[in-house]
Design goal:
175 residues; alpha+beta; Ubiquitin-like (UB roll); 2 domains; five-stranded mixed β-sheet; 5 strands; binds FE2/S2 (inorganic) cluster
């Protein structure tokens, strides 16, 4: 079994990998977090890794991989780690998988049955308190419910318009 060097970018960590197993299996064995939903069947594209160097040492793209990612490796430099084996030294970027894990932990939990995002009770109470304070703080010199306010200059209640209506035509008037 011939061993090759897999350098992780940008940390520079070096892993020993072989040419028999897929990159996904070997990276997982090395304790790296690589997302995969389909279990290596080339249907989810979650296990995508970016090749920084040594692309000539990778196995050719399979039909399943091309179907999923398209023929754009020369632009994106992305490969499915579950479909890729190596035959030499490579440098890989798997930072996207760390980011995904961080995003997942930051996201609010979602109800499994309804798919509705669940918020924490403290968050809900805080939002309710804030909106309550906002309502109480409403300054009196705004347009908020201005029709209920009295006109400041006169004692008459505020007019709401209607005094500029078109007069009906009077047929009996000679003018
Ligand atoms: S694990 Fe799903 S495509 Fe690789």
């Amino acid at each position: 079994m011939s061993n090759f060097k897999c350098t992780l970018w940008p940390s520079g960590e070096i892993l020993d990998i072989n040419g028999e197993e897929t990159l996904l299996a070997q990276l997982k064995k090395a304790g790296k977090n690589i997302k995969s939903s389909c279990g290596g069947c080339a249907t989810c594209s979650d296990c995508t890794i970016v090749v920084k160097s040594g692309e000539m040492n990778l196995s050719p793209q399979t039909f399943e991989e091309l179907r999923l990612l398209g023929n754009v490796f020369h632009i994106t430099k992305e490969r499915l780690s579950c479909q890729t084996k190596v035959s030499g030294d490579v440098t890989l970027d798997i930072t996207a998988h760390d980011k995904k894990a961080a995003d997942k932990s930051a996201k609010p939990s979602v109800s499994k049955s309804t798919g509705v995002k669940l918020k924490k009770r403290e968050d809900l109470e805080r939002v309710a308190m804030e909106s309550k304070e906002k309502i109480q703080e409403k300054p009196s010199d705004t347009w908020y419910r201005h029709w209920e306010k009295e006109d400041e200059d006169s004692n008459k209640p505020k007019r709401l318009g209607g005094n500029k209506r078109v007069k009906p035509f009077n047929f009996n008037d000679p003018e």
